[in-house]
Amino acid sequence: MLRFWGWYERNYAVNVAFAACLFALQLVHLVWLTCQPLAQKITGTPLIDVAGPSRWAIVLVDYTEIPALVSVSLIYVNDLRKRFAWKPVLYLLFLNSQWLHIFWITDEFVVNTNEGAATALPAWLAYVAILIDYLELPVIFDTFRKMKVAVGEDRLGQFLREDLA
């Protein structure tokens, strides 16, 4: 395990940049969630109507959430490994609540509930799923902050000069 964390630290800038970019794709999903199902529920009319092939692009982006959750969780586990602080614990809770949403309260359930379709689960769970999705936002911003710090410390440049030369 020490070998893994040694490698992780040596390549921290690349790891955090990869995690941030992968996690940023979730912003596409959050925009869709806000502008279609949530806007439709609040105003009665969606701001956008994503259907057909475009809808499949949203689904594909949503599946990048799994590697994003793993890679971003490693950032906060690494922080906790160095020293205990409540912020990484909170962000790990925010991140890993996404598993509940991914495997139990799916986007399909949210859309079906919004459209008035009968479901086995109570309708209020759709809004719990939406809230869970929005818990990603502070973690996304913090991950980009961590990437900016790593780049500012020239850890990315150091990786590129040493490991790729």
What's a concise summary of this model?
This protein has 165 residues and is mainly alpha-helical. Helix content is 79%, strand content 0%. The model has no long low-confidence stretch (mean pLDDT 84).
Can you give a write-up of this model?
It is a single chain. The protein has 165 residues and is an all-alpha fold. Helices cover 79% and strands 0% of the residues. It is built from eleven helices and no strands. The protein has helices spanning 2-10, 12-24, 26-43, 53-63, 65-82, 86-96, 98-103, 107-114, 124-134, 136-152, 155-163. Helix 3 (26-43) crosses helix 4 (53-63) and helix 5 runs antiparallel to helix 6. The protein is elongated. The two termini are 27 Å apart. The model has no long low-confidence stretch (mean pLDDT 84).
Residue windows where pLDDT falls under 50 for at least 5 positions: none
Strand content: under 5%
Structural class based on helices, strands and sheet pairing: mainly alpha
Task: Indicate the mean pLDDT.
Answer: 84
Principal-axes geometry comes out as: elongated
- Tell how many strands the DSSP assignment holds: 0
Considering DSSP H and I runs of 4 or more, what fraction of the residues is helical? over 70%
H/E element sequence: HHHHHHHHHHH
Radius of gyration: 18 Å
| Alpha carbon gap, first and last residue | 27 Å
Number of helices: 11
For this structure, the quaternary state is single chain
Please describe the biggest sheet, giving its number of strands, its sense, and whether it closes into a barrel.
none
